[in-house]
Amino acid sequence: MRQLSKPNLLAQDFDFKKTLPDWQISSNNQELARVFIFQDFKSAFEFMTLCANFAEELDHHPDWSNSWNTVSVRLSTHSMKALTELDITMACAMDQFALQVLEH
Asked: Is the pTM of this model over 0.90?
């Protein structure tokens, strides 16, 4: 398991809209949020399983909930009280996993 002792904070001018266009950023720049909608519960669960395995590798876990075909996600590096490279890495991976599940 890869673990960063202290993740890097994001640059002040980090372009969220360019890097993560489907994510919303909180007004205090401390949390990213996105809702993923899938065809059915099985697809949503497949997405969550892919994300959970990656989160374990990264040692950075999302705050999330699932209701049938919908997965609501919030990302933040709580220990830093900020968004860090870990959040961006996780968000980008989640976007890719969603595409992978939606393409079946």
From this structure: yes
